[in-house]
Write a structure and sequence with these properties.
Layout (H helix, E strand, L loop, with lengths): L6 H5 L18 H9 L6 H19 L9 E3 L2 E3 L1 H7 L19 H14 L4 H9 L2 H6 L15 H13 L2
Antiparallel strand pairs: 1-2
Helix pairs in contact: 2-3, 3-5, 3-6, 3-8
Length: 172
């Protein structure tokens, strides 16, 4: 499966603030990122997890720094951020309601990057995003040696994310 969703990133110039001179800098946390997506639309937990993963991965690839610091793990159904999973697990397969709180404390760069990820991947379902995620090297590398049904807490390497998604950009 070819990842054609990255094409918009190759054409856009990142708008990065000067605070990013610190490689450990993050704009917000995983919950801020989830709220940024949930402010756009209600969605399933699986879709939310994958959108958050793609935001982290693409931001790393483009800017060489983290949008959020929390790691993702290579679970059976794709990339999952465990703390985010715990927060929304009660919804099961039902859509999580839209976030109606304020996002005013978050920098516009953070919010606009979330919107860009959503415009690239938001038309896909959680199942579509899972299939896409399974076809990509970072998740596959973290799952090496495991059966498809085996549980795993293996972290998806940020270096793998950078390498893989930068490679997609260079294919343009």
């Amino acid at each position: 499966m070819t990842n054609s969703y990255f094409k918009s990133f190759a054409m856009s110039e990142p708008n990065i603030s000067e605070t990013l001179n610190n490689p450990d800098h993050c704009f917000g946390d995983i919950y801020d990122l989830a709220n940024s997506f949930l402010a756009i639309e209600s969605m399933t937990h699986k879709k939310l997890q994958k959108l958050c993963y793609y935001a982290k991965a693409w931001y790393l690839a483009i800017n060489d720094t983290n949008l959020v610091s929390e790691p993702f793990e290579a679970w059976v159904h794709g990339a999952v951020q465990p703390q985010l999973y715990q927060k929304y697990r009660a919804y099961g397969f039902q859509p999580i309601p839209m976030y109606t709180g304020s996002l005013n404390d978050l920098p516009e760069e953070f919010l606009s990057f979330a919107r860009e990820i959503f415009s690239s991947y938001g038309d896909l379902t959680g199942d579509d995003l899972e299939k896409l995620n399974h076809s990509e090297m970072p998740w596959q590398n973290a799952r090496k040696g495991l059966e498809p049904w085996q549980n795993s807490g293996n972290e998806i390497s940020e270096e793998d994310m950078k390498t893989y998604y930068r490679g997609l950009l260079s294919e343009e």
